[in-house]
From TrEMBL:
Residues 2-241 form the ABC transporter domain. One of its GO terms (cellular component) is plasma membrane. GO terms for biological process: amino acid transport. The lineage of its organism: Bacteria, Bacillati, Bacillota, Bacilli, Bacillales. The keyword Nucleus does not apply. GO terms for molecular function: ATP binding; ATP hydrolysis activity. Gene3D superfamilies: 3.30.70.260, P-loop containing nucleotide triphosphate hydrolases (3.40.50.300). It holds the Pfam family NIL. InterPro entries: AAA+_ATPase, ABC_transporter-like_ATP-bd, ABC_transporter-like_CS, ACT-like_dom_sf, MetN_ABC, MetN_ABC_transporter-like, NIL_domain, P-loop_NTPase. Keywords: Amino-acid transport, ATP-binding, Cell membrane, Membrane, Nucleotide-binding, Translocase, Transport. This is D-methionine transporter. It comes from Alkalihalobacillus alcalophilus ATCC 27647 = CGMCC 1.3604. It comes from the Bacteria.
Length: 341
């Protein structure tokens, strides 16, 4: 659907070169919700501007639905852009137009007959849950309602791709959750491919299928949200993941457990179906070992379970070693090292 092949974008500022995007290769498949995350200045917005064709790459190629967009004429670019809806952090609504007027605007630009526009606007107002707000002006709406109008307007021309530029960053957590649910519905009901940029990992965790992490213009890690969350490779990815899942208790608690038990602590990671089974109790019982769960969580990611438990084992050393080697053959297990505390 969208493919970046070795794409770079360099801006020239006087004598200085700014390498906003560096050698990015990424494939975004039809129907996916793909998130791009990175700190400020990482190159996310530039990458989006390459997709909606507001920037051309300095080198490399951007394909959208198998078309090399750098080769399009200005007229073709305008037509292709209608196929891409966009929503923004600050909503970008026309304050002088009503809610219905905002949603109708792209259809008017496209020369759609008035009757069809009215039907489509009514349909979209119902879809985003704002049927009673058609005649209101944006100033009379809450942030969440404004973003619903933004979504309805972006969907007006029935695009195949929806780009979300920090679409929930200005909203409170509850409204963010509602808007993310609505985006998921847009994706599911209409099969629209969603490309979103954010600096918040919980947004990625909530709705994305795939994620790319950007730093200094480069994609430093990319893959399924499940794989990235359960086995982050790059230190920056690990920092983002830690912002949403605290997988270790405080140092004070860990130290207490260490000294109390006089022993070692282990982290066990369960992935997928394995989390449904009583592995821990079965294996420890078999070897006459007891255990304490010091800390832990089991969460759902992309309809799969992911468990992360910190355990201390109590029993004979040889029995504990047997438990550890049996568990290692079934789940991921590692010692929680001193420096983590
Ligand atoms: N038009 C431009 N001219 C010059 N430099 C630019 C331009 N657009 C972006 N940059 C620079 O490119 C780099 C990447 O910027 P970009 O806006 O893509 O990052 P970002 O990850 O979206 O950041 P933020 O989250 O703060 O919006 C930055 O150093 C920025 O200053």
């Amino acid at each position: 659907m969208i493919e970046f092949i070795d794409v770079s974008k360099t801006f020239i500022l006087g004598k200085r070169e700014v390498h906003a995007v560096k050698n990015v290769s990424l494939s975004i498949n039809k129907g996916e919700i793909f998130g791009i995350i990175g700190f400020s200045g990482a190159g996310k917005s530039t990458l989006l501007r390459l997709v909606n064709m507001l920037e051309r790459p300095t080198s490399g190629t951007v394909f959208i639905q198998d078309i090399d967009v750098s080769k399009l004429s200005s007229k073709d670019l305008r037509t292709r852009r209608r196929n891409i809806g966009m929503i923004f952090q600050n909503f970008n609504l026309f304050n002088s137009r009503t809610v219905a007027g905002n949603i109708a605007y792209p259809l008017k630009l496209a020369g759609v007959p008035k009757k069809e526009i009215n039907e489509r606007v009514t349909e979209l107002l119902n879809f985003v849950g704002l049927a009673d707000k058609a005649k209101d002006f944006p100033d009379q709406l809450s942030g969440g309602q404004k973003q619903r109008v933004g979504i309805a307007r972006a969907l007006a021309t029935s695009p195949d791709i929806l780009i979300c530029d920090e679409a929930t960053s200005a909203l409170d957590p509850e409204t963010t959750a509602d808007i993310l649910k609505l985006l998921k519905k847009v994706n599911r009901d209409f099969g629209i491919t969603i490309l979103l940029i954010t600096h918040e990992m919980h947004v990625i965790q909530s709705i994305c299928d795939k994620v790319a992490i950007m730093e200094n213009g480069e994609v430093i890690e990319a893959g399924s949200v499940f794989d990235t969350f359960t086995a982050p490779q790059h230190p920056t990815t690990q920092r983002f993941i830690q912002s949403v899942q605290q997988d270790l208790p405080s140092k004070t608690i860990l130290e207490k457990w260490r000294t109390r038990g006089g022993g070692k602590l282990y982290r066990i990671i369960f992935k997928g179906d394995v989390s449904n089974e009583p592995i821990l109790s079965t294996v420890t019982k078999e070897h006459g070992v007891d255990f304490n769960i010091v800390y832990g969580s089991v969460r759902e990611l992309q309809e799969k379970l992911f468990g992360n438990l910190i355990i201390s084992f109590i029993g004979e050393q040889t029995a504990i070693q047997n438990v550890l080697s049996t568990l290692k053959s079934i789940v991921e297990l590692e010692e929680v090292t001193e420096h983590e505390c």
